[in-house]
Write a structure and sequence with these properties.
By secondary structure, the chain is an alpha+beta fold. Helix content is 40%, strand content 27%. It has eight helices and seven strands. The model has no long low-confidence stretch (mean pLDDT 96).
Length: 180
């Protein structure tokens, strides 16, 4: 990967001997490896058996999980917040695991629409919940730095599974609890 960054920098006309670029290909390779580290993780690894018995059947909502990802189309960042809710069915998931699930999928080349769905399906798989809802609000650097260059634009995506898809009251309760 380091050699690839050397080629890219040379291709744009940079001098790799310039003091500011001396170790840049190595640093960039390490950074890109970190930003795509989600490929080396599994759902079982990040949840680490943190599913616990519970009689609670009411909605559990974890809001404002910050994330950073890379757009698979331009390799530019998009970032924002994830809100995840589920309706337990005999089990609850440790709260930190929602952030870990989000991070695992965000640390892959992505589009926001798929990220939303992947998080919802992972929570459903781990918890066997009656329903799962995910909302992501984010800003995309591919819209801000290039192309249309709209600095204030944001994108919201949603995924509803199970009762959140079929029960309008559950869906409404979730959406009212999620900030605009």
């Amino acid at each position: 990967m380091q050699q690839s960054y050397e080629k890219i920098l040379t291709a744009v006309g940079e001098d790799l001997q310039r003091p500011g670029l001396k170790d840049t290909p190595l640093r960039a390779a390490k950074a890109f490896s970190y930003l795509t580290s989600g490929y080396t993780q599994s759902l079982q690894e990040v949840t680490n058996d943190a599913v616990f018995p519970s009689d609670n059947r009411e909605m559990v909502l974890v809001k404002n999980i910050e994330f950073y990802s890379l757009c698979e189309h331009h390799l530019l960042p998009f970032y924002g917040r994830v809100h995840i809710a589920y309706l337990p069915e005999g089990h609850v998931l440790g709260l930190s695991k929602f952030a870990r699930i989000t991070e695992m999928f965000a640390r892959r080349l992505q589009i926001q629409e798929n990220l939303t769905q992947q998080i919802a399906e992972a929570v459903q798989e781990v918890t066997q919940a009656r329903g799962v809802a995910v909302v992501i609000d984010s800003a995309h650097m591919c819209m801000m730095m290039r192309g249309v260059q709209k600095q204030s634009s944001t994108t919201r995506t949603v995924s509803f599974l199970g009762e959140f898809k079929t029960n309008q009251e559950s869906k409404r309760e979730f959406l009212q609890a999620v900030p605009d």
